[in-house]
Amino acid sequence: MGKRRIRKPPLKQICERYKKLYGGPLYDVLEGMGLPNQVLSHQIMPLLPHMKVAGPAYTVKGERQHPKQTPFTKINLLEGLKRHYVCVYAAGDDESGHWGELTSNNAARIGAQGIVVDGGARDSSMHIRIPNWNTFCRYTSPIEAGPRASIVAQNEPILVRGTLTEFVEVRPKDFVFGDLDGVIVVPQEIVMEVLEKAEDVVAKELKGRALIWEGKSMEEIGRALGVG
């Protein structure tokens, strides 16, 4: 008989399990698997500390253009966006507010979780009012991106600026995790393996936390649990 195939949990459940994690253990697992360069630029941060995303990537690529340049072909920015997904936008420009709150409202209506933009967010005070929405960006700006940058591709592999490497490749459906420590990209082929390993680390750290308050030393905890 052939090897029994293990059914993958529903996407909603996978997202919920990832959202119980935090960045440190997730990074440690990836580094232990030989993938240390999966962290986006440390300048890409949430607008509010509690914001968190965990879901498949919906990718968008932008390019800078001169105001007098003939505009690029207009693209429907959110065409193909699905429920539970995270928009990842490589803006290609560091002057404008590339992602506004009306776009976020539209994406939230579809059921997406949030935006990770390697560039600027606009209308920040309005983003934070959208229920169940999370905005990560490099900076905020009131400047309209329309005449200065254009969308040139969507749902294609993109390059987003990284922390340990100049760029991190993000492919459609790669898994994006973001919290107050930054944004991590998990290759889609190993989403479940990474999740299960990270859950194991988090469980051990929970036990280690309790042992600290019982007066155990970090050395004792490290020997007992392999964390610390």
Summary keywords:
10 strands, Glucose Oxidase, domain 1, elongated, single chain, 8-stranded mixed sheet, two-stranded antiparallel sheet, 228 residues, alpha/beta
How would you summarize the topology of this molecule?
Elements: H1 11-19, H2 23-32, E1 45-46, E2 53-64, E3 86-90, H3 101-110, E4 114-121, H4 124-127, E5 134-140, E6 149-154, E7 158-161, E8 167-170, E9 175-179, E10 182-186, H5 191-213, H6 218-225
Parallel strand pairs: 2-3, 3-4, 4-5
Antiparallel strand pairs: 1-5, 2-6, 2-9, 7-8, 9-10
Helix pairs in contact: 2-5, 5-6
Q: What share of the residues does DSSP label as strand, in percent?
A: 25-35%
Our count of helices gives: 6
Query: Low-confidence parts, pLDDT < 50 over ≥5 residues?
Result: none
CATH level-two architecture: 3-Layer(bba) Sandwich
- What is the radius of gyration? 19 Å
Which CATH C-level class is it? Alpha Beta
Shape: elongated
Helix vs. strand class: alpha/beta
Order of helices and strands: HHEEEHEHEEEEEEHH
Query: What would the CATH topology be?
Result: Glucose Oxidase, domain 1
Task: Indicate how many domains the architecture comprises.
Answer: 1
- For the record, give the distance between the C-alpha atoms at the N and C termini, rounded to a whole number: 43 Å
Please provide the count of β strands.
10
In helices, the fraction of residues equals: 25-40%
Q: Report the major sheet.
A: 8 strands, mixed
Q: Give the full name of the CATH homologous superfamily.
A: Ribonuclease E inhibitor RraA/RraA-like
* Mean pLDDT value: 90
